[in-house]
## 1
Amino acid sequence: MGRSQGSRRRKLLVAAGVTVAIVLTVASAAAVGLRMNAGGSHQAGTAQPDRPSEESRVVSPIPASPPAQSVIPPGRARISVPLLEYHYVRVNPDPRDRLGFQLSVTPGDFAGQMDKLAGGGYHPIVMADLRAYFLAREPLPARPVVLTFDDGYVDFFQVAYPILKKHGFKAVAYVVPGFFGRPGYMTAAQVQQLDDSGIVEIGSHTVNHPDLTKLQPGPLDVQLQASRATLEQLLGHPVVDFCYPSGRLNAQVVAAVAAAGYQTATTEQPGTEHSWPDRLAWTRVRVDGGERISDFFARLRTPEPADVSTLRSPTAIPGPSGSSVSP
Ligand SMILES: [Zn+2]
């Protein structure tokens, strides 16, 4: 991506320092309970952002999708795009751990799912592509799907990423900077490598995964802003996509997410239809461990109709060059 190794290394060192400082700050300021498990179904409030005003700039370190044979033409206010929600890609280590089992898609099942997506003409895209669709009137490839991975587990890097790379599939990793380098989690260097790959978009999943609905305004803002700032320092470009820990949100949390500068945010509410006004409460489709491939396909629902006649060359999404990084 044209950045020198030396500059990258310096950036990494700076980022590591920032991360430590932020984690310490949050630990003392927030004293939040760590909700490590990402499970449970939550009937969180489906508060929606009430202002359509947005940063009109589209940011992404990831190249636009290659031209498709058919496309979803821009201009539709509401489109069906399944945002698949993964956690672990592993064999669940404890057979008695039902939640762990449910959250763990085996490497074999995951590879099979990716093969089926490829064979079925699906095109994995990222949030930058959805932002470009709604904001910049760029088309989407036919049968778009977003593969999201929560929590920054190391098996994403070790198991899922090589499979994605084999297919040239894009994916979104929602990472938790306060957990970088802990056992079972990716390191900052691995996250940086994913970002450099051009196929993985990094989003924030807070500093240390608290239940945001239980935080006072100060600690809430720290979780949203410090995680974003840490990732931007590490990666050297804006980070504008967010995922609510354990899908917990309410109107105050959504307002804080908007104020922190995020352009999209995903929940654990089920659904596949998305519009720009509800971009801070986008629904997802959870992929459960042990799910049969027929069930997997059924949950993708009916694909958004594509249109062959409107084929045109997708314009590259403006990259991070020249865009400023928040402090
Ligand atoms: Zn999570």
## 2
Amino acid sequence: MRRALPAVKLLVNNELPWHKVLVSEHRTEYSRAIQLDWEGARYYADADTAAWLSPFWAEGSPFLALFRQLPLERVVELACGHGRHAAQALPLAGHITLVDVLASNIAACRARFGADPRIGYVVNNGNDLPRIADGSVTALFSYDAMVHFELLDVLSYLREAHRVLVPGGRALLHVSNNRENPEGRVRDNTHWRNFGGLDVMRHFAVRCGLTVLAARALDWDGAAELDGLLLLEKPA
Ligand SMILES: C[S@@+](CC[C@H](N)C(=O)[O-])C[C@H]1O[C@@H](n2cnc3c(N)ncnc32)[C@H](O)[C@@H]1O
């Protein structure tokens, strides 16, 4: 006689936080390795020079053209590093919440900006926006960081962006357009761009409830169309 199979409990739980839905120890290990790439990196000093800032902030930059389309009353900068972009954005913004997975980076930003009441600080877990209320942010941007992230973390952040943005709020995201090495590790890729793709990002964005206002491929340091820039809007 066949034995009855044990009851299978379906894990359908609307209370489960989104960022935990797709977590496995393997995913976490890949993400953690990427985070540690930036702990105490020499990058931060190099990146805070005019030469490294100009692709983002010089007149004629595609980043600046889209940044000017952000409503800057209450801003989140995701993966802020040592705050080089926040220093550029601050004169234009009402309030900026700086988010980074590394406590050492948020400490560096605190040392840089001090107790400026226009700045808030959040250490996150690598795929969430904790302590940022639903519908409380007018703009979110992230430069030179998501290009390295695991695709599943980018998906979590798109979901979080939709959660925290006000209706009509916008997100400007610098993402990877690298279609190579889908099974590999970011360090093996050109300019450490993780596997991604502007088309996949657009798909994710729309499935997370965001409208794509602009999506353009960008060359990066001689590598044709390696990166992408996305301007997204939460529908009003
Ligand atoms: C190349 S640095 C760029 C920093 C800053 N955006 C800039 O342009 O100067 C990458 C940043 O991403 C952060 N980071 C890495 N993985 C992350 C994750 N999963 N979530 C949030 N931040 C992350 C690192 O701590 C670091 O600050």
